[in-house]
């Protein structure tokens, strides 16, 4: 039976939770050896992603990808942080602002598997659909 990236991540997270930095280094080194031995080193990127998700969930951290047509201003980032903290009961919000001029305006927020699309591009598509139906 193959071990999944999620199973590896959960195991690594549980083992490293209460460890010191030096102990984490040893555990991580051994973990990499186990991956290599099991010929599953290709899962490393997925394992890291799952590990981060577990860590963030446990520590009340919401990781947000904010896609906008231009760089967000400080006050906009503050509004997003406030919204996310309230909606997800997060203690901390990490925002990664990606620029995509194709959305024309507005914003798309991605939090985990959830997407909130308030882009002008989406609104124009919706308007076009409703006009075509007329």
Could you characterize what this model shows?
It is a single chain. The protein has 134 residues and is of the alpha+beta class. It has two domains: 5-57, no CATH class; 60-133. Helix content is 54%, strand content 21%. The chain is built from five helices and four strands, in the order H-H-H-E-H-E-E-E-H. It has helices at 5-16, 21-37, 44-58, 74-88, 120-133; strands spanning 61-68, 92-99, 106-111, 114-119. A four-stranded mixed sheet has the order 2-1-3-4. Strand 3 (106-111) and strand 4 form a beta hairpin. Helix 1 packs across helix 3. The longest helix is centred in the first third of the chain and has 17 residues, at 21-37. It is elongated and about 60 Å long. The model has no long low-confidence stretch (mean pLDDT 94).
Task: Put the structure in a nutshell.
This protein is of the alpha+beta class and 134 residues long. It is 54% helix and 21% strand. α1 (5-16) packs across α3.
Instruction: Give me the Rg, rounded.
Output: 20 Å
Structural class: alpha+beta
The overall pLDDT average reads 94
Give the low-pLDDT segments. Answer: none
**Silhouette:** elongated
* Major β-sheet strand ordering: 2-1-3-4
* Gap from first CA to last CA: 56 Å
Strand content: 15-25%
Count of helix runs: 5
Number of strands: 4
Q: How would you sum up the major sheet?
A: 4 strands, mixed
Estimated helix fraction = 40-55%
Order of secondary-structure elements: HHHEHEEEH
The tally of structural domains comes to 2
């Amino acid at each position: 039976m193959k071990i999944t990236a999620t199973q590896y991540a959960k195991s690594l997270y549980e083992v490293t939770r209460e460890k010191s930095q030096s102990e984490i280094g040893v555990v991580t080194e051994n973990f990499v050896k186990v991956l290599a031995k099991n010929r599953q080193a290709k899962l490393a990127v997925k394992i890291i992603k799952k590990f981060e998700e577990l860590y963030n969930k446990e520590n009340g951290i919401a990781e947000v990808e904010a896609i906008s047509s231009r760089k967000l201003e400080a006050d906009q980032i503050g509004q997003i942080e406030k919204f996310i903290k309230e909606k997800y009961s997060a203690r901390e919000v990490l925002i990664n602002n990606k620029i995509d001029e194709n959305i024309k305006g507005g914003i798309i927020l991605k939090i985990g598997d959830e997407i909130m699309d308030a882009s002008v591009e989406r609104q124009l598509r919706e308007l076009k659909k409703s006009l075509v139906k007329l």
